Amino acid sequence: MTNIIILISILVSGGLTVFILNAIVNYKIKNKISENEKPLTIVVLKTFMFLISGLLLSELITSFQTLTKILPNSYSGYTLLLREASFFCIFLGILILILFAILWFAAFMFSLLNKGDHIFMETANNNLNAVILFCGILLALTIAIKTGITPILDQFIPYPTMPIYR
To answer: Which of 30, 42, 81, 131 has the most crowded CB, counting CB atoms within 10 A?
Structure first.
């Protein structure tokens, strides 16, 4: 039962993250291109954004599995399910904040490297070289930050405390 809950929650969070990233890219680029124009760079940018969101969501699984092993010792029934859902929402919120921070920092680094160019303007202008550079920065930052996500999420898990006898 626990594995089914984890699978459903990861699928829902993956779909939600992809929907949010797609909406952000469409919003940022919508005024910069015409209705019938579909540059290749938009597809490349969205692909790498979906890839890094998947890399970050993969870190969610280990923390959530640890949580689902610890919580049944303290809670049962609907309270257990409610606690698992609330902790998963906290974990997902933290990961989405980290994802936005990575995207902002990658856009900032891209702007510094390209003398003030904006990534969404370069994407709308179909500049594939600039988009590949941005995707490389994005991937490098994600791989570097990915290892520190599990310890951050583990800080929120309510481990049982051992009593101290004196």
So the answer is: 131
